[in-house]
TrEMBL record:
Enzyme class per UniProt: hydrolase
PANTHER family, A to Z: AMIDOHYDROLASE-RELATED DOMAIN-CONTAINING PROTEIN, GUANINE DEAMINASE
Entry protein name: Formimidoylglutamate deiminase
GO molecular function, one term: formimidoylglutamate deiminase activity
Keyword ATP-binding: no
Domain Amidohydrolase-related, residue spans: 54-438
InterPro entries in the record: Amidohydro-rel (IPR006680), HutF (IPR010252), HutF-like_N (IPR055156), Metal-dep_hydrolase_composite (IPR011059), Metal_Hydrolase (IPR032466), Metallo-dep_hydrolases (IPR051607)
NCBIfam families: hutF (TIGR02022), PRK09229.1-2 (NF006681), PRK09229.1-4 (NF006683), PRK09229.1-5 (NF006684)
Listed EC numbers: 3.5.3.13
Signal peptide location: none
Cofactor(s) needed for function: Zn(2+)
Organism from which the protein derives: Novosphingobium organovorum
Gene3D superfamilies noted in UniProt: Metal-dependent hydrolases, Urease, subunit C, domain 1
Amino acid sequence: MPDVPARAETGLFFDSALLPGGWARDVRVGIVDGKIASVAVEARAQDRDERHAIALPGMPNLHSHAFQRGMAGLAEWRGDTADSFWTWREIMYRFVRTMTPEDVRAIAAMAMVEMLETGFTRLGEFHYLHHAPDGTPYANRAQMAGALAEAARASGIGLTLLPVFYAHSGFGGQAPGEGQRRFLHDIEGFARTLEESRAALADLPDAVLGLAPHSLRAVTPEELHALEGLAGSGPIHIHSAEQRREVDDCLAWSGARPVEWLLANANVDARWCLVHATHMTGAETRALAASGAVAGLCPITEANLGDGLFPAPAFLDAGGRFGIGSDSNVRIDASEELRLLEYGQRLGAQARNVWARGAGESSGGALWRGALAGGAQALGVARGGVAAGIALGNSADILTLDADHPALAARAGDALIDGFVFAGGSGVLDCVWRHGEKVVVKGIHRDRPAIRERFISTLQRLLA
């Protein structure tokens, strides 16, 4: 039998790193084939190791509609009537009317670059723009999914693809509207789309395929049951209780609120992520926490759309799991999502340090650890018995911070995260490794110029 050549190891050495067990000094991480092959603390650097001061695990982005990055800022003009999520949605429908797969690739690649530059290393793409402009499926039903996979490959970001099932415009199976024609499926066609999407992800490192019933507005109970069967053990994401009108319409249809109905009628467990879950009663909040599902919170978008505030204190006290997402991508910044998540709660409660539940606990530390664990679970990369982050066998998704940044001066441990999230923002971030490959250096993605140029030329044509 011929000798098998030894796999090359890349070594990274950090003066200080956040590990699953807490902060550690003099940490050496060995990387083989994109994964963490060794973690040693109080270690010595080896000759070829790349050395940095401060390391954090990369942050999952559990909810995004990447194409919407192209319409960021276009819905900030007041209309003739009171503006809301529902008027914003009409602008979005107009924006997607003529987009091609290549347009989606160009816009998504730019969004993914910005995600990596601000600390997101894996993306959960809630993908519902499937068909040609007239609503006809492409010959390859995963052509749009393939464009997203190509954008992920170009940027280097990890991808959990969540093809969306969308069939109706309102509760009880109402007929879809004209603006939704590019999103629509029946169960048989969606099953084909899933299989062709799996093929589109085949050569993308550590990609995950899940699925997403868009919302209870867009699926019937029978369709939801069928989708649970198609999901197997993969992630299941669904929009839920984002707007008060959605709650009222669900009550009128079923006599129950959206989260209440889901928990009573679907097998909601740790596979599930309920995105937004903004408007819940105390009983719903406690029940969602007990289910093991993740609440997917998108504070920048929720603020932009005027959604409301998630009931965080009760959810956290009940042991609830959460993660963060960039959703509409009106602004992309991992630290800003966390900062706004906390600040929204402070405004609502007229109190400080709401996310930190125990005396002496850091708000930044609580936010980072919670969103890391919940995001990894929601995106299907949490492995049984192994914590998310810089741990043996996990993908080497690592951020380094600029120790010379004023926001980090004279700080250590969780005070570094507080400085990053609340004082410095994404300007504190130095380098990013995704699956062991360095994709961001001194805060700038290695391929930003070319990807930016394609993005700008695409928007100039779309918005002409």
